[in-house]
Amino acid sequence: VMYCSEECRTASWDESHCIECSILPTLQKLETSILASKIVIKACKTNDLKNMLKCLEAEEIKKGCNNEGVYSSSNYSLNFWLVTHIEKITFGNLFESSLNAACILHCLETMTDFFSDIDVNEYKYEVGSLLLHHILQIRLNTYGIKEIVNLKDYFEKSSPTSNQEAVTGYGIYAVSSLLNHSCDPNSDTLGLRGDVIVIRANRPIVAGEQ
Question: In this predicted structure, what is the pLDDT of residue 49?
């Protein structure tokens, strides 16, 4: 793993990489597993798991809004309540996702200290359920993180075709997931500014319009 700065590396280590580092080779072989495990690790490191699960159950009617009714992107439950459309997933895809979740759970239990502060016997299956939940979400709610890659080393000389947009990763931006698909969209995703996704209207949008 490479980072753009010491600050970025430290933030990543504190959030999740201190746990995921030892299992990254396995996660890289499983589709969507890196992001799903990162979400669960970060959520469990910043929240008491028992209280978090109780709060999620109690918040079902609010679907991610905080006590002031604000849909805040800093709230983990906002990500939790993004749709999975599990009722529309084929048995084969659901089985594959379940195997991936079980594999991540096994790695967390046997290859990391993830459960050092969590009762593995009491919460093992809850953590596995969260992993599966987020794996299913990722299929529907991720945005590709792109950058311009210079390919001039592959050409004899620099040309317009030597620069290419490449996906370097994926992220979940919960507020952006509220925007429905349209064949005639009134907004466009422009990319990232730091860790914030930038979406701008491409024409006037009146109140009440999707």
Answer: 82
198, 188 Cβ separation under 8 angstroms: no
Reading the block at residue 67, the tokens are 């006590």
Residue 58, pLDDT above cutoff 80: no
> What residue spans define the domains of the chain?
6-141
CB atoms within 10 A of CB 81: 19
Q: Which long-range contacts (CB under 8 A, 24 or more apart) does 193-198 make?
A: 195/171, 197/143, 197/171, 197/173
Q: What is the pLDDT of residue 196?
A: 81
Give the residue-averaged pLDDT of 15-41: 89
State how far the alpha carbon of 151 is from the alpha carbons of 85, 154, 159, 169, in Å: 39, 6, 9, 19
82-112 tens-digit pLDDT: 888 888 999 999 999 999 999 999 999 999 9
Rg over CA atoms, the chain: 19
**In sequence order, which ranges of 81-204 are alpha helices (DSSP H)?**
91-111, 120-141
Q: Six-digit token pair at 23?
A: 């299992």
Backbone angles phi, psi at 48, to 5 degrees: -75, 120
